[in-house]
Design goal:
This protein is an alpha/beta fold and about 130 residues long. The chain has one domain (about 5-130): Cathepsin B, Chain A (Alpha-Beta Complex). The protein has 4 helices and 4 strands, in the order βααααβββ. The chain has helices at about 15-25, 30-55, 65-80, 85-95, and strands at about 5, 100-105, 110-115, 125-130. It has a 4-stranded mixed beta sheet. α1 crosses α2, α2 runs antiparallel to α3 (about 65-80) and α2 crosses α4.
Length: about 130
């Protein structure tokens, strides 16, 4: 059964509030969700650093920054309360919490949906996260 999670307040924690509410049932746990997701991203970056370096992945970032450095900095920014969650974070949440995330977006008055599967799309585990009330 799909669930729709809508968060009315729009602040820098809206995405993390929605994920906390969808997975833990309490949106006030959003700081813990934010930290967990940043930790997972940073661990994944460290785990894959040798492989990414050997494959030459991500060496074209600004100032010659590696993809590993980019991910670590992204995780550090994610930890700050002023960081707005986005598409990357929805993909991380799908994997961390083993849920399928379907996000409704509105661009130029046109509504669309983005899907981020946990492993494969399974309508029984869909969680729709809406940033607009």
């Amino acid at each position: 059964m799909s669930r729709f999670i809508g968060i009315g307040s729009i602040d820098t924690s809206t995405l993390f509030r929605a994920i906390a509410r969808a997975t833990l049932g309490i949106e006030e746990l959003h700081p813990e969700v934010r930290t967990l997701m940043a930790d997972v991203l940073e661990r994944a970056a460290r785990l894959h650093q040798p492989w990414m370096h050997a494959a030459g992945i991500g060496t074209d970032y600004p100032d010659g920054e590696s993809y590993y450095d980019y991910l670590v900095k992204y995780a550090q920014r994610m930890r700050t309360p002023r960081f707005w969650g986005g598409v990357t974070d929805l993909a991380i949440a799908a994997r961390v919490f083993n849920i399928n995330v379907v996000a409704r977006t509105i661009i130029g008055g046109h509504a669309d949906f983005m899907r981020f599967p946990a492993t494969q799309l399974d309508d029984e585990r869909n969680t729709v996260v809406s940033f607009f009330s």
